[in-house]
Design a protein that fits this description.
With 280 residues, the chain is α/β, with parallel strands linked by helices. The strands form 3 sheets. The protein has a 6-stranded parallel sheet with strand order 3-2-1-9-10-11, sandwiched between helices. Helix 5 links the parallel strand 2 and strand 3. It starts with a helix and ends with a helix. 39% of the residues are buried.
């Protein structure tokens, strides 16, 4: 048997919860932080963002360009296959470390966005949430022509988390909360920041209700993902990992596949649909 057929056998007639990372979205044109072909990147930390106005200015200038690219991205074959597996009853839910909303765009319904999403902005003072679209209008008014001038001068390289790689941001003007004057931050969990407790509890409950935990495109380097693998293993729930390269959770896995998510999930969908068509 091949590894792919082993995976189909593992999930057959079982309830599956998927845990997805950045490798799930690379085929949609969103780069990851730790893939085998990824360049070195230094993501901004929560402490930097909150503690230094220069860091905040640099971030918002980059995000002013990058979020548009993320908003325009579309689900790939892997996202669509996972949504189809949910509709057919194989997958009962998705926990994602990604902030790109591509699972929702693909039609998945039971999705927990562990790290939030690029499309909401949070005031760190009054806690009010606003849409990224509304903030884009305010930033454009404060920085007329900024996006066009940067693109024309240098082009834009897109980084993860709705970020664009640009260096000269000294002249960019940041806006604050229009209600209380507080610091605005993307409603995304940064490095060094904790996932909200109620979201973690809901994710653990979803994992504990599963017969199989299927990890897709995550190196499991950070604890926000690895803890769910550890919980599944502790409870005797089989863990299958599909990722390009080794992961921090491989020792907990019943099955590992060094493969891409799109092709693996497309094959899995085909096999599961064939099994449904032929019956027991």
């Amino acid at each position: 048997m091949t590894a792919e057929s082993d995976l189909a056998a593992l999930v057959s007639r079982r309830s599956v919860v998927a845990l997805t990372g950045a490798g799930m979205s690379t085929d949609s044109g969103i780069p990851d932080y730790r893939g085998p072909d990824s360049p070195p990147r230094n993501p901004m930390t929560y402490q930097q963002f909150m503690g230094d106005s220069d860091f905040r200015r640099h971030y918002w200038a980059r995000n002013h360009l990058g979020w548009r690219h993320m908003d325009a991205t579309r689900p790939n074959a892997g996202h669509r296959a996972l949504a189809a597996l949910e509709r057919s009853g194989t997958v009962r839910g998705v926990l994602t470390q990604n902030v790109d909303l591509l699972h929702t765009k693909a039609g998945s319904r039971a999705v927990i966005d562990l790290h939030g999403s690029y499309l909401q902005v949070r005031c760190m003072g009054c806690e009010r949430r606003t849409s990224r679209i509304a903030l884009a209008e305010r930033l454009e008014a404060a920085n007329p022509g900024f996006a066009e001038s940067v693109v024309a001068a240098t082009g834009v390289e897109i980084a993860p988390d709705a970020d664009a790689v640009i260096e000269d941001t000294a002249h960019f003007r940041v806006v604050d909360c229009e209600y209380c004057g507080g610091i605005l931050k993307p409603d995304i969990v940064y490095f060094g920041e904790s996932v909200p407790r109620d979201r973690v509890d809901a994710a653990f409950a979803m994992v504990e209700s599963a017969d199989v935990l299927l990890v897709l495109g995550s190196s499991l380097t950070v604890m926000s993902g690895l803890r769910f693998v550890r919980r599944a293993a502790k409870l005797g729930i089989p863990v299958a990992i599909v990722n390009r390269g080794a992961t921090r959770g491989d020792t907990y896995a019943a099955l590992t596949l060094d493969a891409g998510c799109s092709e693996t999930l497309t094959d899995l969908r085909r096999v599961m649909e064939a099994c449904t068509a032929t019956g027991p």
